[in-house]
């Protein structure tokens, strides 16, 4: 399949959206009834636009999964039975453990920062765990993730060990980047986490390129099984950046296997999303470029997971990109240096009541998927993992002085590769004499 | 990343070789770049091109002519006008081992993508502690053309050469163009390849070795285009041609000039420059770009640099630092060898004007180089005395 624009398939019927409501996972029925107009985005500011009626996710009939409850929107009610539960017990515990790991890790980071063990910029993810857990637990190891500076939990959810992430934050040689990257630049080739970018919007083209490479490997290099999917995570502030639109265009043009995940936490440091954006509904920007745009309640891990399943399968099939807007919230400030004075305490309280971890806990109890005891043992296990990570990081050595000048180039001395395919500096004859005459 | 490059005989996209047996073969820069791209794309299926107008338009300056027909639209990608976007896409693809060659229509447009060149390409190998290397090439015309105005005429050699993690190459002749582009494409690191629009049509003689498909030049090594003993003139890209003409004029006046074609701005071949300065004791640096913080300023300092490095080496004992200086034997002061202040010829410190006579004044000309060489040889009064 070539990349030329003439082969571009029909765009999906537009617009599409899963309308979420604000209630936590208390009852299945109310979850899918549209309650409009919602106090959209949870902001106290009044809205200038009319509410949009609900649409079904535009899934072709053949691919609708039985477990996908979003198709029941039109009916407005759901029959509650164990067969209709979205997750099994194992999956539920896995999700819970991942969210607890993220939350406890970030709390530990805050503690370590105030004790002076961590320094520089540290951006914490508290409150947004549902988004990362909802997506990552559906990915394979070969799938790629690109993130922003708020990347600790993305690295952890993808499988980078807590010890490696914590040491990296402490700036020790045992960190995942040997202390050379830091909080904002988590790279792990093994787990396909390719950053960690400090500039917002910078990771989106890189993610698009990773998706491009997956498609290239499949179609030009003819590698079997090259169906890796790429996820690009970024925030609401990034959605006003030019690179975002450039990549929406090219991803849809070339039908790249990428999912653009917007973690809309309403605030870009102190700039409210509504003050910065002419049309605050980010999911609508997907259909403008010919890809589905989905809005999902990012405080509810199960809803995120459903949408993620659909989007990831779509990308893996080769049907192209998806834009997923997750309405979420960060409980802490933008970074540990942010006094967080501009956000309304009432807004924070409203979102704190929708804490994704408590919501999942409630769901697990109500559907008898787990007991108090099991969840407590998970929390205890995570506590131990983190204590071990901190101890390991404390005891790890600082990078040796010789590491300063290493890894600037992949090429050991910078002279390039010779005609025989080996590095020139390895050829003993090369270092004799200076210039070519 | 050691890979033997198969020695294939490739049919170039269009013939670069004249059919007669007697005369030396000549090749334009355009043909040199085209054949280099063709051969590298043929040898390695991971190499692909992307840029504006590289495909159906056959290249904005016809450098990529014929490649779309030969390799198809999946490997020669016409992009929308989105420098930041497609440069980032190239970087992301390079993270996963593909080898993109990203063309900027001119390097002025690379400013829209400079974040990706520096922050996501150059710095990635370091930030990830060696996990992710970025085998990407950014190429395109650089520097002044003819009457294109201020926004299309800047030389970016100094800006990119300041950044660790990038290799910056600037060819002059067809041999340079072919050899350095092939080396750049094979290289596992990000390379900024600065061509010159006015040189694209110029022909240079090439030997049979250059025409071989496995030919490539080392990065970080300069070439002495003309040997001399009175004054060293360093230049890159189009200025090498001007320096050679200046050398002819100077020869008639009894000054023998040694012309160094830098070829590689980063890593800079300080060893060659210092060896030449120790021989001639006089230095003139020529470049087309802005003077402040330019390549000439760096070369000037690098003759002092060797003086300081002695202390650094003793206190840090880093073998890596020694290697970065490109030699283990040149830890001597070239400063003590200079008999005259270093003359720096650069473009005028103004944005490029449009009017033809002003543009001629804003870019170094052969006469400027001749005058500078004479000043360095104390044949004429130094600039400070005339002020």
From TrEMBL, chain A:
EC number: 1.2.4.1
Origin: domain of life: Eukaryota
Disordered: region residues: 1-22
UniProt KW keywords: Coiled coil, Oxidoreductase, Pyruvate, Thiamine pyrophosphate
Spans through the membrane: none
The keyword Transmembrane helix is assigned to this record: no
InterPro entries: DH_E1, PDH_E1_Alpha_Subunit, Pyrv_DH_E1_asu_subgrp-y, THDP-binding
Cofactor: thiamine diphosphate
UniProt domain Dehydrogenase E1 component: residue ranges: 99-399
Top class in the EC scheme: oxidoreductase
Stretches assigned to coiled coil: 368-395
Reactions listed under catalytic activity: N(6)-[(R)-lipoyl]-L-lysyl-[protein] + pyruvate + H(+) = N(6)-[(R)-S(8)-acetyldihydrolipoyl]-L-lysyl-[protein] + CO2
An example Gene Ontology molecular-function term: pyruvate dehydrogenase (acetyl-transferring) activity
A Pfam entry, by short name: E1_dh
Function: The pyruvate dehydrogenase complex catalyzes the overall conversion of pyruvate to acetyl-CoA and CO(2). It contains multiple copies of three enzymatic components: pyruvate dehydrogenase (E1), dihydrolipoamide acetyltransferase (E2) and lipoamide dehydrogenase (E3).
UniProt-listed PANTHER family: PYRUVATE DEHYDROGENASE E1 COMPONENT SUBUNIT ALPHA, PYRUVATE DEHYDROGENASE E1 COMPONENT, ALPHA SUBUNIT BACTERIAL AND ORGANELLAR
Quaternary organization: Tetramer of 2 alpha and 2 beta subunits.
Designated name of the protein: Pyruvate dehydrogenase E1 component subunit alpha
Species name: Stylosanthes scabra
Taxonomic placement: Eukaryota, Viridiplantae, Streptophyta, Embryophyta, Tracheophyta
Automatic annotation (TrEMBL), chain B:
Transketolase-like pyrimidine-binding domain: residues covered: 27-202
Annotated SUPFAM superfamilies: Thiamin diphosphate-binding fold (THDP-binding), TK C-terminal domain-like
EC number per UniProt: 1.2.4.1
Protein's UniProt keywords contain Oxidoreductase: yes
Keywords: Oxidoreductase, Pyruvate, Thiamine pyrophosphate
Entry keyword annotation includes Oxidoreductase: yes
Cofactors required: thiamine diphosphate
NCBIfam families documented for this protein: PRK09212.1, PRK11892.1
Protein's job: The pyruvate dehydrogenase complex catalyzes the overall conversion of pyruvate to acetyl-CoA and CO2.
Classification via PANTHER family: DEHYDROGENASE RELATED, PYRUVATE DEHYDROGENASE E1 COMPONENT SUBUNIT BETA-1, MITOCHONDRIAL
Name of protein: Pyruvate dehydrogenase E1 component subunit beta
Gene source species: Stylosanthes scabra
